[in-house]
Amino acid sequence: MTDTSEPARAATIYTVARHAGVSIATVSRVLQGSRPTSPATRQRVLRAVEALNYVPLRAGRPLATRHEAHGLVLAGLSGPYFSELLVGYESTANQYGQSVVVVTGEGRNDIVKSVRNLDRRVDGVVLTHGALDDTRARMLSRSLPTVLVGRPPLDGCDTVAVENATGTLELVSHLIEHGRRRLVFAGDPAHAHDIRERYAGFRAALERHGLAEAAPPIRVFYEELSAAEVVSAIGEPNCAADGLVCANDEVAVATMALLTQKGVKVPDDVAVVGFDDIMTARYMTPGLTTVRQPTYELGRWAAIRLHERIQGRTYDVHPQLLPTTVVVRGSCGCPMDGPEPPRVWWRP
Q1: pLDDT tens sequence across 127-185
Q2: Sign of torsion, CA 155 160 164 170?
Q3: How far is CA 107 from CA 75, 114, 139, 276, 339, in A?
Q4: Which residue numbers delimit the HTH lacI-type domain (predicted)?
Q5: Which residues pair with 161 in a beta bridge?
Q6: Rounded distance, CA 5 to CA 26, Å?
């Protein structure tokens, strides 16, 4: 049968208004920050913008609007998380016609110095977790519009984050439903706000099911080099875990590989789960059960919120939380259905 349907058209301010059930003037006020709107109306408009993947055209803005330069401050670029966040941010900034100055640093002093040099080069800044402490971030927000990503809210800043605790609670509850009773968390809650929230979700799930931790959290950094320490810890007599909840997929994937090398079967001997849903997770054998977080959207919304801040919006700065989804594969003990089709991360 021949498909006679018309190709999908790019969303316009009119389709956003229809989708949200508001006037085009209201959509314009929300996106340009020209006048306050109610929180409920603003959320309807933002949900419509997200659903339709709408980005306002520069041609539709007042001529007086000047070109924006954004500073994006990352703790590093290693690992899949920051690379996908960067793609989401830069693609959206590009659609707005904005330039992005990316700052990274291996040490906190490097980042502090680089951010200090940004002050006269950009119109606003985004700070991810691990980039500047709260005191410096609060000071920076007094001179530049500031958006925080994956960090606790601060007065004077916008915050964009994901639902870490809820996703982890659902993930751990799924493990418990498989009969796992000796669960341990691999990650240091003191390292980052996201990890702290995931550990809180882990603890909440155990409490809900009347269980105790098999052992205190294995306090490792969220990178693949931590796998050796994790494997060593779960082999200790005082641990004897039958379920391992890793702070992120990078630790989980590396730990699974190392366990396999040592003759430990996943999930027969120990179930392993992660958080992020990186590409490697679906190509493991067995595939990694994890929580999918919308990292691309995290970057996209950070760019949108900073643009709003630069345009003058100072009201309605409640944290914006993006939902997460549990993705079930074989590492938790569920039947494996074979490899999944690739997902397309890049978006027009």
Answers
A1: 998 788 888 888 888 888 999 999 999 888 899 999 999 999 999 999 999 999 999 99
A2: positive
A3: 8, 11, 20, 24, 39
A4: 11-65
A5: 321
A6: 31
| DSSP structure string for 73-129 | E-S---SHHHHHHHHHHHHHHHHHT-EEEEE--SSHHHHHHHHHHHTTT-SEEEEET
End-to-end CA distance of the chain: 28
This model's pTM is above 0.70: yes
Any idea which of 40-49, 166-175, 277-286 has the lowest mean pLDDT?
40-49
Checking DSSP bridges between strand 124-128 and strand 146-149, what pairing results, if any? parallel
Q: Are 158 and 126 in contact (CB under 8 A)?
A: no
The single-letter DSSP state of residue 235 is: T
Specify whether the CB–CB gap between 324 and 293 falls below 8 A. Answer: yes
**Per residue in 179-234, pLDDT tens?**
999 999 999 999 889 999 999 999 999 999 999 988 899 999 888 899 999 999 98
Q: How far is C-alpha 247 from the geometric centre of its chain's CA atoms?
A: 13
Going along the chain from its start, the domains and CATH numbers come out as 13-52 (1.10.260.40), 64-162+301-322 (3.40.50.2300), 164-293 (3.40.50.2300)
**Owner of token pair 């803005």:** 61
Q: Which residues pair with 99 in a beta bridge?
A: 69
Report yes or no: 20 and 48 within 8 Å, Cβ to Cβ.
yes
Residue 87 neighbours by CB distance under 10 Å? 17
**How far, in whole angstroms, is CA 190 from its chain's centroid?**
18
Tokens standing for residue 195: 């990890």
Taking CA 137 as the corner, what is the angle to CA 91 and CA 70, rounded to the nearest 5 degrees?
25
| φ, ψ at 53 (rounded to 5°) | 55, 45
